[in-house]
Amino acid sequence: MKNNSELQTDVQNAIKWEPLLNAAEIGVTAKDGIVSLTGVVDSYAKKLEAESATKKVIGVRALVENIEVQSPSRWTKTDVEVAKEALTALKSSYSVPDDKVTVTVENGTVTLDGELPWNYQREAAKSAVDYLNGVKSVKNNIKIKSEIHDAIEKKDVENAIARNWSFDDSVINVAVTGTTVTLTGTVNSWYQKNEADRIAWNTPGIWHVKNELMVDYEFSM
C-alpha cells in the first residue's frame, strides 16, 4: 500500500507526464487515498487533463479539485463571444442533434440544458465546448429522456458488464428501478468505475445511472 508521500509523488509525476500540463502550476496533496489538486491553469482543458491524469494513478480513491482557470488576456472573450462559439461547436458535432441543447454563459461558465435520448450525445455536447478559449467551467445539465420505452432488464446490464475484460476481479451489483440503473460494489480503479458507468448508460431505455461504486485498488475477489 502506498503511503501519502508515495501517492503524492505518483500523482505529481502523472501530471508532469501530460504534454498539455505544466506541473509547476498544480499543487498536489494526498492523505489516505484522497488527493487534492490546487493551483491556477490558463485553460479549462488543462483542468480536465489534470483531473483525468490523477484518476488514472493507482491508489487514488477520491479526488478533491480546487484548480482555478485564469485565461490569458489574449484569450479573454466576452460571454456573448463564448456563447456564439459554443453554439457553433455544438452545431458542428455530428453526435449532437440540432436545436436540442441550449447554452447559457455567465462569467466564462457555460451551462448546457436540454433533453437528449442518449448519454453519449450529452457527453459529446460537453466535449464540444470543453476546449473553447474563454471557457472557465462547464455545467452539463442536459437530461436524458430515452425514446425507447422497452423495460430495462437487469440481466442485460449485468451481461454487458460481464463481457468487458476489465471487470474479471471486481464485484459489481446492478439494481433496476423503472428507467434508473444503480451500480454498487467495489472496483480496483477509476477506469473501471467510469467504464461501468459508460456501459450502464448504453442500456436502451435508460434515463438515469446512479454510480455508487467504491474504488479500492487493493480489492480483489
Unreliable residue stretches: none
Strand content: 25-35%
What is the count of DSSP helices, taking H or I runs of 4+ residues? 6
How many β strands by DSSP?
11
As a percent range, the share of helical residues equals 25-40%
Overall residue-averaged pLDDT value: 91
| Distance between the ends | 18 Å
Q: How does the overall form come out from the CA principal axes?
A: flat
CATH architecture of the largest domain: 2-Layer Sandwich
Helix- and strand-based class? alpha/beta
Q: What would the CATH topology of the largest domain be? A: Histidine-containing Protein, Chain: A
How is the main sheet built?
A: 4 strands, mixed
Protein described:
With 221 residues, the chain is of the alpha/beta class. The protein folds into 3 domains: 67 residues, Histidine-containing Protein, Chain: A (2-Layer Sandwich), CATH 3.30.1340.30; 70 residues, Histidine-containing Protein, Chain: A (2-Layer Sandwich), CATH 3.30.1340.30; 62 residues, Histidine-containing Protein, Chain: A, CATH 3.30.1340. It is 33% helix and 29% strand. Helix 1 crosses helix 2. The longest helix has 14 residues. The protein starts with a helix and ends in a 6-residue tail after the last strand.
Topology:
Blueprint: H1 4-17, E1 26-31, E2 34-41, H2 44-55, E3 62-69, H3 79-92, E4 101-106, E5 109-116, H4 119-130, E6 137-140, E7 143-144, H5 154-162, E8 171-177, E9 180-187, H6 190-201, E10 208-211, E11 214-215
Parallel strand pairs: 2-3, 5-6, 5-7, 9-10, 9-11
Antiparallel strand pairs: 1-2, 4-5, 8-9
Helix pairs in contact: 1-2
